[in-house]
Specification:
Chain B: This is (2Fe-2S)-binding protein. The structure holds two protein chains of two kinds. By secondary structure, chain A is an alpha+beta fold. Chain A folds into three domains: 173 residues, Aldehyde Oxidoreductase, domain 4, CATH 3.30.365; 198 residues, 2-Layer Sandwich (Aldehyde Oxidoreductase, domain 4), CATH 3.30.365; 239 residues, 2-Layer Sandwich (Aldehyde Oxidoreductase, domain 4), CATH 3.30.365.10. Helix content of chain A is 23%, strand content 26%. In chain A, β21 and β22 form a beta hairpin. Chain A is globular, with a radius of gyration of 27 Å. The termini of chain A are far apart. The relative contact order of chain B is 0.15. Chain B has a five-stranded mixed β-sheet with strand order 2-1-5-3-4, with helices on both faces. In chain B, α2 runs antiparallel to α5. The longest helix of chain B is centred in the middle third of the chain and has 14 residues. The chains are: A alpha+beta, B alpha+beta. At the A-B interface, β3, α1, α14 and β32 of A face α1, α2, α3, α4 and α5 of B.
Chain lengths: 785, 167
């Protein structure tokens, strides 16, 4: 069961979807829906591969009744439409709003000439927090990139606001434009820090020159990846309104708590006066993790007009102001000795950032730890361009970086005439060579073994161009995939009620991945209950602060908070029982009391002795037991290297006459700690693998070299795979117990499906054609060239 | 302004609308049926797909006045409030054919028409048949399974297992 914010106007009760959706309209109360299937519990210990239960919000989404931020209305609401810059560098010399204001229904045009001044603009600078960006919120007349918001038309209807926005005339004084990669390689500098602040910008291990000199085989190649845009299906949207000095926002954000904090900071107001609600989110992939300019603009306009304001970005406005994946130019050197062991590795990355802010795509960080190699250099540099600041985009750094590394590894294996999998095994890192620490767990060998077996890797002939299917050349490739375990700070409240049900409160949002379902499952498991006995109150900043849904961290973060708070409540229940003379568990040692299915406390050594949590609570004042736990990383990070690993296998077919590449088969094996829900988890990695197909073959943001305007700022020309592009894809999980990583025992699965899969596809294309493609995406023109 | 009457999910609605009003905005703003989503503004993503006289259209590129005198079906019409999910909705729910759910209503409306014309589609026919609808989360496979499931149910057959294959 999940309950969204209390003030929401509708009450839903979906008691049993197999029978009916019973719908009760109730003005005051809450969104409630209960889980569907009665659960059976075979084993009360934490399951390594959790029950594949259906998501708690499935019926609501399948009936069109889930409410996204753009669906929320408020009486008297105005519609905002942004006017975007048409130059990439310079200054606004005039904004003529006369014609726009003549449009019936248009009530105001907000620009730097009349926008409210924000008290916290001293905080609008490159921040030490990787996700806080420099914003453009109409405080000055400067233009730093094309498609930057410079004005906002406010009207009673969307049509009026759209017409008004088309009539705003802007004149500029233009400056020369700094181009993005690959052209703009002047003005290169070293970033101050990486997005994960613990990551060093540059590293050196051993003596690279000596390693290269001692080697028998060497390779050096440059790999390039283009700028990409996240393009979640749901456009960024929010409704903002003020009640006195209190601001409420229904905002499509991946980080409710972070958004609340950032808005409060920029407006110079206490955090308690900002409320952020995200009932449902239509994907984000990183672009809704940062609080970008539009999130400030809507409340500013609401302040200016005194009315609620809804702002929904148009798709083309999502190419600039809400982040992008940086293009990369990466040079890889590998050198091996006669036994096929790596002696030297160098990975030099050039990425791009905006001319007003710093985001360094961490392309080389994985190279430092993926294989054992005594001599290694990695560096990161970036150029500054007149573009919107890049942001984390699903596997930021890892996706382009591992494409380069795993392509180079494949190239070296080919040079050595070694099987690519055997070459990887020959260089297996038993401990983290970068941190010089043990892994908390690493089941990569098992991923290789089971993945290879299920895929039929042994049937791959060593020689490229030796498999055919009609006119198609067929090839098989593989790669290692990896993603670090990230964990942020989250707080959760868990309340066990005398009726045996449990309530969980935490601000967390559900990106679409299934967070609401997972949190429900985690709490249920601790108490031996079925998920439909757990109510989750979330999606709202009135609940305890929680982590961003980004960097595959939310289950590790908020899931750990829920785990710990639930365990704390259970501990209180145990102590209550052993101190209660009326309890059958009176005077039993605390460690001897375990919980069994159905919420039964039991003596471990004598299972006949025990009682239900409900009877214990009823006898002891009939009051709930509750605990709030703030959960964060401890010193385990200093002692261990914590990462999820996997192996991805790809089969492709290439028609050389037409230049067409088809990915006919993808198989991923993943070891990511405990998997809470097999159904949602498997779907997550499959979705990630489709992102890799997209990155390998389709996606590319194209800039006009005259003015850095994106030329394909729409979903017709910015290519992502459609269903017909996708064939057989499968993914499975290796059982992996890891008690070190975090209390939830999970490593995160949002990104690992993407990371290695891109190069597995590129390596399969090499095996099919005998040609190496080092520039993404691998499109028809490149195959035909 | 123009007076139009559009039958939506069986209910006739009359309204005075501007000729420039898009059908999707009529549905979402005037009728408060927000299950039909807007993803791209250019008829590329399919999130706004509805049935217009039984034929799937992208309602972001149809004017409301073009729907005058016609009948429109949206996701809210797939099952009545309180009634059981229809086989397609059940298929998407049981097969985890949705993550964020933003593409789901459009996907199901397109699949409704697909199954009407082809009650027993192959996997390939489904993949091609719904290629006008983008999904950025699921990886598509579970959507194909959801539609296969619905087809089987509508034919009165037992749908395939919804459990993950390998484990």
């Amino acid at each position: 069961m999940w309950v969204a914010s209390r003030e929401l106007a509708t009450r839903w009760c979906v008691a049993n979807s197999r029978q009916a959706l019973s719908l009760v309209l109730d003005k005051i109360s809450t969104l409630v829906w209960c889980l569907i299937q009665p659960m059976t519990f075979k084993n009360m210990a934490k399951k390594l591969l959790g029950d594949p239960i259906n998501r708690v919000d499935g019926a609501l989404k399948a009936t069109g009744r889930a409410r996204y931020s753009a669906d929320i209305k408020r009486p008297g609401m105005l519609h905002g439409v942004l006017v975007m810059s048409t130059i990439a560098n310079g200054k606004i010399t005039a904004i003529d709003t006369a014609d726009a204001l003549k449009v019936p229904g248009v009530v105001n045009v907000m620009s730097h000439q009349n926008a409210p001044k924000l008290a916290g603009m001293d905080k609008n600078k490159p921040s030490e927090i990787a996700t806080d960006r420099v914003l453009h919120v109409f405080q000055d007349d400067l233009v730093h990139y094309n498609n930057q918001p410079i004005a906002m038309v406010l009207a009673e209807t969307l049509e009026q606001a759209t017409e008004g926005a088309s009539l705003v005339r802007v004149t500029y004084q233009t400056q020369p434009v700094k181009l993005p990669l690959p052209a703009g390689k002047a003005d290169m500098s070293t970033p101050k820090q990486m997005p994960r602040v613990d990551d060093q910008v540059d590293t050196k291990r051993g003596d690279l020159a000596a390693g290269l000199a001692a080697a028998i085989n060497r390779m050096e190649e440059t790999y390039t990846t283009p700028t990409m845009n996240h393009n979640a299906l749901e456009p960024h949207a929010l409704l903002a309104y003020w009640e006195g000095d209190k601001l409420t926002m229904y905002n499509a954000t991946q980080g409710i708590s972070g958004c609340q904090k950032r808005v409060a900071e920029i407006f110079g107001m206490p955090k308690e006066n900002v409320r952020v609600i995200t009932q449902f989110l239509g994907g984000g992939f990183g672009s809704k993790g940062t609080t970008f300019s539009h999130v400030m603009l809507a409340p500013m306009a609401a302040k200016l007009t005194g009315k609620p304001v809804r702002l929904v970005l148009k798709r083309e406005q999502m190419f600039g102001m809400v982040g992008n994946r940086s293009a990369t130019v990466q040079r890889l050197n590998l050198a091996t000795g006669k036994d096929g062991k790596l002696l030297a590795t160098a990975h030099h990355s050039i990425t791009q950032t905006s001319d007003f802010d710093e985001f360094a795509e961490p392309a080389g960080t994985i190279t430092r730890m993926l294989y054992a190699c005594p001599n290694l250099d990695t560096t990161h540099k970036f150029i500054r361009a007149n573009i919107g600041t890049p942001a984390p985009m699903r596997a930021p750094g890892e996706a382009p970086g591992v494409f380069a590394l795993e392509s180079a590894i494949d190239e070296m294996a080919a040079q050595l005439r070694m099987d690519p999998l055997a070459f990887r095994l020959a260089n297996y890192a038993e401990t983290d060579p970068n941190k010089d620490k043990p892994f908390s767990s690493k089941s990569l060998r098992e991923c290789y073994r089971q993945g290879a077996e299920r895929f039929g890797w042994s049937k791959r002939p060593a020689q490229p161009r030796s498999l055919k299917n009609g006119n198609y050349l067929r090839g098989m490739g593989m790669a290692t995939t990896v993603y670090p375990m990230n964990r942020g700070e989250s707080t959760a409240l868990v309340r066990l009620k005398p009726d045996g049900t449990v309530q969980v409160e935490t601000a967390t949002q559900d990106l679409g991945t299934g967070t609401f379902t997972i949190m429900t499952q985690i709490a249920a498991e601790v108490f031996g209950l079925s998920p439909d006995q757990v109510t989750l109150s979330a999606g709202d900043s009135i609940y305890p602060t929680s982590s961003v849904s980004g960097g595959s961290r939310n289950t590790a973060s908020t899931g750990s908070a829920v785990t710990q708070a639930a365990q704390e409540v259970l501990k209180k229940a145990r102590q209550m029982a052993l101190k209660d003379p009326k309890s059958p568990l009176f005077n039993v040692a605390e460690a001897e009391i375990v919980v069994q299915k159905g919420g039964q406390l039991q003596q471990k050594s004598n299972p006949k002795v025990g009682e239900a949590l409900t009877s214990l609570l009823k006898r002891n004042g009939n009051k709930p037991l509750e605990a709030t736990v703030q959960s964060k990383q401890g010193d385990e990070k200093g002692k261990y290297s914590m990462n999820a690993f996997g192996a991805v296998f790809a089969e492709v077919e290439v028609d050389e006459l037409l230049g067409e590449v088809r990915v006919t088969r993808l198989l991923g094996s993943f070891a990511a700690g405990r998997i809470v829900n097999l159904k949602t988890a498997r779907s997550q990695v499959l979705g990630g693998m489709v992102w890799a197909v997209s990155m390998a073959l389709h996606e590319k943001t194209v800039f006009d070299p005259r003015n850095n305007r994106v030329m394909n700022a729409n979903l017709a020309e910015y290519h992502v795979p459609v269903n017909a592009d996708i064939q057989e894809i499968d993914g499975f999980f290796i059982e992996e117990a890891d008690d070190i990583v975090n209390p939830a025992g999970v490593k995160g699965i949002g990104e690992i499906g993407v990371v290695g899969t891109v190069s597995a596809i590129a390596n399969a294309i090499y095996h099919a054609t005998g040609r190496r493609f080092r520039d993404l995406p691998i499109t028809v023109d490149k195959v035909l060239a | 302004m123009k007076q139009i009457t559009v039958t939506v999910n069986g209910q006739p609605h009359s309204a005075e609308v501007e000729p420039r009003l898009l059908l999707v905005h009529l549905i979402r703003e005037n009728l408060n049926l927000t299950g039909t989503h807007i993803g791209c503004d250019t008829s590329s993503c399919g999130a706004c797909t509805v049935l217009l006289d039984g034929k799937s259209v992208k309602s972001c590129t149809v004017l409301a006045v073009q729907a005058n005198g016609k009948s429109v079906s949206t996701v809210e019409g797939l099952c009545a409030p309180g009634a059981a999910l229809n086989p397609l909705q059940e298929g998407f729910k049981e097969n985890h054919g949705l993550h964020c759910g933003f593409c789901t209503p459009g996907m199901m409306m397109r699949a409704t028409e697909l199954l009407e014309h082809n009650p027993d589609p192959t996997e390939d026919e489904i993949r091609w048949g719904i290629s006008g609808n983008l999904c950025r989360c699921t990886g598509y496979n579970n959507i194909v399974k959801a539609i296969l499931y619905a087809g089987a149910k509508m034919r009165g057959e037992e749908p395939a297992s919804t459990e993950p294959q390998f484990v």
